[in-house]
Amino acid sequence: MTLFTTRRTFLGGAVAGVALGAAPAAQAAYYNTYSDIASTPTAYECTGAQAFAAGSTYLYSVKNRTTDDGRAIIYRVNRTTGAKEIMTNTAGTDSKYISGLGHANDMSIVDINAVHHFFVVTMSTTGAQLVKLRYSGSTYYQVGSYSVHLGGVAKAVSGISRMSISSSAITFFFKSGATVYKGSLPLTANSGTINITKAFDLKTSGALVNGVATDFTGFAHQGFYYHEAADTVYCPLTKENVSIVLVYRNITSATTGTVTSDPNLSFRITSGVYADKFEIEGVGISGGNLYFNTNRAKTAADAGWDGVHLFKGYTAT
Hints:
By secondary structure, the chain is an all-beta fold. It contains no helices and 29 strands.
């Protein structure tokens, strides 16, 4: 695969479900162009892009071995220069990959007493549902793992995002499909059970994309991101070569019921270049920009064009 040395911009296609003669709402803010920051090619048999997180300087993208979820690597990408490297697992027998993250579908960055950590969801009902990694610079190692239970039963959550942190506890939003849960753990605990409770549901049916009600039949939920500073959830959904990000406002620890996406803000990429697959796996905000990672394939036989990217023109508020 050719590595990206410059950023390239692509234009998304037409909105699904647009009826003949229908006009977008005049106030709708709609973003359908993006720039490549860096490619994240297959390495150490890890072919599938999964979890994503955005730090202040670096973007982090996990790829796993999709045949058995038996190992994963973590790319660290400078969000300004695009320089990238595979992080080193200082506790691993092979220092460039880690076992035990399962599907590694989503992750969240949490600084605990000024030390950086990734919290990664495994999407497994056996073993740990959540794994804690400590990282510094380009190195990391596992320091903890947890069970996640709903009603006393292990729950294979597919999304995680930090909701809040205090001097004694970390509280997360977790997601499974369109349902969001919440749960907490002691600030410095490296093991234990997180008992989650339902918080709210994300309404997707008929959500407005560029001002037009959209049919989300067949779309898959991916990771998600809670922007604490703005009480806002960003939720990517994907189907074949189409990825849409819906935005939900005024989300707090007290939110319940079913929440509706912002009718005046949406993101969509319909890729002609990656016609077989353009999947946004996770999103995150840094410096006001909305970044994301992808699984991309031009054809079924020409896959592995995964990368880390930026929505052009958008500043988070």
